[in-house]
Amino acid sequence: MNTVLRDAVTRMVPFGSRVLDLGCGNGELLAHLQQHHGCSGYGVEIDDANVLACVKRGVQVIQLNLDQGLAMFGDQSFDVVLQIDTLQHLRNAEVMLRETVRVGRMGIITFPNFAHWPNRLSVLQGHMPVTKKLPFQWYDTPNIRVGTFADFKTLAHHNRLHIQDAFGLQEHQEVRWWPNGRAATAVFQLTAAPL
Looking at the domain covering 3-114+145-192, what would its CATH class be? Predict the structure, then answer.
């Protein structure tokens, strides 16, 4: 995980939070939050090698396929639920967004922004983009969907989710002016909309 993304997420997570990290990979982010931000919690991961890496880092991890949902967790079980570059791999992305704010008081979602200008240029030239953020060819990508910063805002509104903060990340900086075109990564901080 790059340090810009790690630091941006860390700033959004209140100190001492109970965190659920969905698709936690090797547990690097959750270990950082535990060691440097007073957090506790669990990672959720399906890959055997990543589960082992989490255990070696001292991160509590549950091996679970996220396409099966989060029924094992009660409402508001966590302060923060993270989906860091996970959403684009899920078949039930819309359900998992709603589950994120059901299980957590706040959700932090990041994903590759397909509307980033180099991606647009690549498509205009007749090819699917291959970039640092989207490093695979179209025929062997683990991403089952692509989305844009603007698309996600629409999806959040459609699902009655409240966007507390939204910005892009590009190289080593936050992008707040026109992140839909200027940022490779979209970052959203969400809560359930008040009733």
Answer: alpha beta
